[in-house]
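ARCHIVE CARD
Drawer: 12
Card no.: 0347
Subject: one protein chain, sequence and derived structure
Cross-reference: see card 0346
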Amino acid sequence: MTRSLWLGLGAALVIGGAAAVGLLTNDEPRAGGQAMPSAPVTASLAAPPAPATPAPTVPSFDVVKVDPAGNAVIAGRAAPGARVRALDGNKPLGETTADQRGEWVLVPEKPIAAGERQLTLEATDPKTGARRSSKDTVAVAISPAKNAEPPLAVLLPGDPDQPARALQTPGNTAGAGELSLDSADDNGRDRLVLSGRAPAGSRLKLYAGEQPLGTVTSDAQGRWSAVAPRPAIAGAYDLRIEELKPDGSVAARVARAFDPAMTMTMPREGEYLVRRGNNLWQLARRTYGNGLHYTTIYTANREHIRDPDLIYPGQVFKLPRS
């Protein structure tokens, strides 16, 4: 089954750990007025205030920030005292040591090379010498062009039921505390994985078209993510997120088009007619097998694309072979 990923390129830089997954329930009334039971789809990952959650033994990313020249700041967590090494493919970027809380920050001496990069971590126990590798990968796209926009950095979880998370995006315009839908992934199976931001502690209601997916609550940092059964809807549909007031009325609403099938319609060989719900990440993923190659499409169609976040139905793009 084809897996479709939609990533909102206007997502704000996320500082901190992975987004908390709230209890996703479907409390819509049944026919006849009876409420459906609220059955949790996934348990909350939010850490209790006390005691402190121990640092993970497997190294993980919290922050990846890269400027257009490739200069980077990378931060995350590992076992306290572990020696952490960041890798660009098989090439070491640098090493540092996690503090007593298991937190670490690394500023590589040399810039990360332009192009599509895959960053991973390796942590070594100072006592036993045992090595642990990160489960997650950070995909970074750095344009070689002069005066380029800031690179794109996306956390790709090792768990397919967790959403991709934007760590840094070009054209970063969304403000902190604003309601957003940053990514949607049908994970190639029978589940829909969503993530975004909202005011801290907000209760949100999720829809696919007019079909309710359930409710979720944003965490203390204003992040939310949810896993729901894949809706039985043919073709493209709108994903809608509603922020609820205490009385249940709608305080804010956002909607994004999502096309799980993403059937490509080619007007001529090597061209693509943009459809409603398309974005450059999806087109690159279907065409080249990697969403980070969206820069290839953007570069080949600069005369038609003023902002890579904004493409419109009816536009015809060239799709280079490589």
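Annotation on reverse: Helices lie at 280-288, 294-300. The chain has three domains: 1-42+161-261, 52-159, 271-318.
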